[in-house]
Amino acid sequence: MSVNPMAYEAQFFGFTPQTCMLRVYIAFQDYLFEMMLVVETVILKKLDGFPGCKISPCQIRKSTEKFLLFMKEHFDKLFSKMEEVLLQLVLNIPENVLLPEDKVHEQYPYTKEQFQALQDEIQQLQQQYRAEASAGQALQAELEEQKAVQAELEKILQWFDGLDNICREHGTSNFKESFAFLTQNSKKLQDVLKDVEEKSKKIKKHDQLL
User: Where along the sequence do coiled-coil regions lie (predicted)?
Assistant: First the structure.
């Protein structure tokens, strides 16, 4: 059997030529064995018609095996020649022939160095893509955070609007006046609270004296 891997032929046929030849060899060999068994069976039947024949079935089997070995030796020689012819002339793709799917290599030839440079460029592009994807995720997270802050600011503005409406109901016209109004009322409440606390202390001291 040929030791040439014949990878290009395997790409075209879908199987290696050596595998094909091996299967053909096995098929021929099996057929040869079956044929010799048929011949042996026919001889035994013919001998049954001659009662005085002194040839035993064991002798016939030995003769059959000897003849089979002779046939196999000659078959191997013939098959070796047939294999050489088929692998060279039938199952072989000439070196100057390109398969249709490999035509692109003829149009755009690349050296080993150019191919390696292309691989390096692809790797760099992949790294850039991963970096941009990571930056995009960071921007998306920042956008979500800005949306949350905007929602809080809208709540604060709504609170101020409500506060402004309350102040208008009490006679103030704008936010500054409303804020001043609230500050004034808050101060009054603090004064009242302080006065209450002082009176409470005086009452406690009076109770203690009694």
Answer: 108-142, 179-206
- Which ranges constitute the DSSP H helices of the chain? 7-13, 17-48, 57-85, 103-107, 112-169, 175-209
CA distances 165 to 152, 177, 179, 189, 193, Å, are 20, 12, 12, 21, 27
Name, in order, each residue with C-beta under 8 angstroms of 182's C-beta and a sequence gap of 6 or more.
163, 167
Domain positions in the chain:
7-102, 167-209
- Say what angle helices 175-209 and 112-169 make with each other, to 10 degrees: 60
User: Look-up: residue for tokens 């000659």?
Assistant: 74
Give the pTM: 0.45
pLDDT tens digits for range 70-121: 999 999 999 999 998 988 888 888 877 777 777 666 666 767 788 788 888 9
| Beta-carbon contacts of residue 40 (< 8 Å; ≥ 6 apart) | 60, 61, 64
pLDDT one-digit tens code per residue, 129-144: 999 998 888 888 888 8
